[in-house]
């Protein structure tokens, strides 16, 4: 799970950087839509970076660590597809990437559900 911590740190840094960029460099009414996309992407990316750290912190304490690893991978897929799609749309205007974002959203949901199942198994055994 060392890789999860590394990726969490990188995702956290990217999210904060892009959030700051959106707040400052994208200010202005002509960029409001793009700025909103970047802010939303950065928000979701940061939340899931923190979740990756939390998963890495508890992975060895849970009997079924495969579920936690799968949850971490699902969240990484969510970051790439959901946040990545929002960033691509914001910076390029290619709205076709809107079709990619739901894949990431589903991956986020799957990740959280896998985390829930791992927690349930931890406390039911």
From TrEMBL:
Chief location bin: membrane
Topology in the lipid bilayer: Multi-pass membrane protein
InterPro entries linked: DUF423
Keywords, ordered alphabetically: Membrane, Signal, Transmembrane, Transmembrane helix
Localisation per UniProt entry: Membrane
Highest taxon in the source lineage: Bacteria
Annotated signal sequence range: 1-22
Any GO CC annotation of this UniProt entry: plasma membrane
Transmembrane stretches, start-end: 41-59, 71-90, 96-120
Coiled coil: none
Similarity comment: family membership: Belongs to the UPF0382 family.
Protein name as it appears in the record: DUF423 domain-containing protein
Organism the protein comes from: Thalassospira lohafexi
